[in-house]
Here is the input.
Amino acid sequence: MDKYSKRERLAMTLKGIIPDRPPITAYRHFPVDEGKKDRLIDVMIKWQEEYDWDFIKLHPPAVYMQEVWGDTFDFDNYYQEVFPTKTGNTYGEVNLSMFTPQNADNPYLAEQVDMVHQVVERFHKELPVFQTMFTPLQTISGVFDCQFIRRHFPADRNQNDIFRMIKDEPKALQEALYNITQTYIAYWKKLHDAGAEGLFYAGVSWAREGLMTLEEWETYVAQYDRMFLNEVHKDGGLVIYHTCGITSNPQRFADFPIDILHWDQGAQNPSIKESLSFLKGITPMGGVDEMIFGNHAEAKIKGLTEKCLEENKNVPYILAPYCSVSVHSSDAELRAFRDAVK
Here is the structure.
């Protein structure tokens, strides 16, 4: 029997106390299943039952907020393995004026609230449950089919329509971001009422060095993140912030209203130990390269996880892959990771 409950272990870590072992979690996409709420609920419950994570990050479709603003998808056909094929938008031609505030009872949001409720109840409220959301700019980027900034690939701002909007429609873009943020606040309150512990909030790669200027990032990303996450904190919700991929500037988030910062420690970014110099009161999360999963690499995963545990044995942190693991990850790989802390 574990010395501490899942909630106790997480709470100790967030207070800067080193428990019996670091809390551990992992997450992945579930193509096809994610397109049907009941199937996704079953998959998420099974994911937790099989691997007994210390907390669960629910993994709805990455596009579900786009659905709120009219995008439609074919969840039987995917590209790049994790993105359902877009079939259109109910508004017809997309423009920034379509991003009006939405009611939290929107059917796509209501589905997610119900999923949170069912997972929370299934584990008798003993398992911390985090819902996934994305920075508002990413919702606009997705609806406009802008270039997706992949975690380890170069990104060219000249090929991304977001930067045209920043240049040509700054006021309309900021109004759209504000309206999305207000929708997020209303949605969060429903999630909180359903029992969500907090949010896994993805800033994706917008903080990447050399992509946005610092002023652009502050204007179109950071101010809306802070606006929203302050409301989450006011309600007692916990926030895991994810800044993704190469040169993702985790230092920028040291003053954010967040509890946990998750980033890729191996991609020209600071290590967990190095982050202690700037993450004052924020718990680091990560430790293991997610890119090795899905390659029959259980021995390597075991070795890297054990190395991370040894290197950070005097640090309060959360053990996790740097990002979502491959949809081809094997049970042997996942158990090599999970069992390293037993």
Summary: The longest helix spans residues 170-193. The longest strand covers residues 71-79. The two ends are 10 Å apart (CA to CA).
